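hey so u asked for the seq, here:
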Amino acid sequence: MDFKHWILNEAMQQSTGKIRYGNNHAVLDLDSKNWREMYRYYRALVPKYLRMQPQMYDPHITFVRGYKGLGDEAELIEPIDPDLKKEFWGKYEGEVVPFEYDPELKTDGTMWWLDAFSKRLEDIREELGLSKMREPYDSFHITIGNAKEQE
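ran it, structure tokens below
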């Protein structure tokens, strides 16, 4: 293992969140004072001229994403078999789940995020008939902010 991979593995941080279900999405809610402070810290690292906007929602990790967009423009992202949804949807509401996150802030120039990892969330996705991760990603993420155009 090279130094970069070693130091990143050594630097992984641990935290917990609570599972919350919506109609077509599921999140790990990181709603704590510490995570709100963490958001402010990471936003302060991004130069002001990049005009990063804060995340719209409280700190969270989306681990099942139902739809992208709103109303008639909504596109189904992750269809769940109705029988599996009936059996398992909401089953773990409120469960406290541990996860690890990489403290290195990532960006693609429009979005800023922290990579996050959780075996438990992967297992829940598989129980719903989904892949461990949403394609093409190899981790979950915690969005810190974005520089999208305002409409």
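The radius of gyration is 16 Å. Residues 33-45 form the longest helix (13 residues).
lmk if thats what u needed
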